[in-house]
Amino acid sequence: MPDAVRARLDRSRVVQEGDHRFALLLEETVLHYRVCVPGSAGATISTVPTMTDAPARQRRRVTRDAG
Asked: From what superkingdom does this record's organism come (predicted)?
């Protein structure tokens, strides 16, 4: 296994194991900026609900008009 893959898996264990709490804050305006190809952006955003399904994880959205 390449070192980069091993390092990424080690970092991901922090999210999957232990008694940690995580919050993901997503500002709505970032959804309106093009930073990558549309298919890549859609695939990334579609993983958010599954990443935050566990009880120790929360997701919140800051709407465009909140500022």
From this structure: Bacteria
Is 6 a domain residue? no
Predicted TM-score (pTM) of this structure: 0.41
Which residue is listed with tokens 């990334």? 44
Q: How many CB atoms lie within 10 A of CB 29?
A: 12
Integer Rg of the chain from CA? 15
The number of folded domains in the chain is: 1
Asked whether the beta carbons of 18 and 51 are under 8 A apart, the reply is no
State which residues of the chain have pLDDT below 50.
none
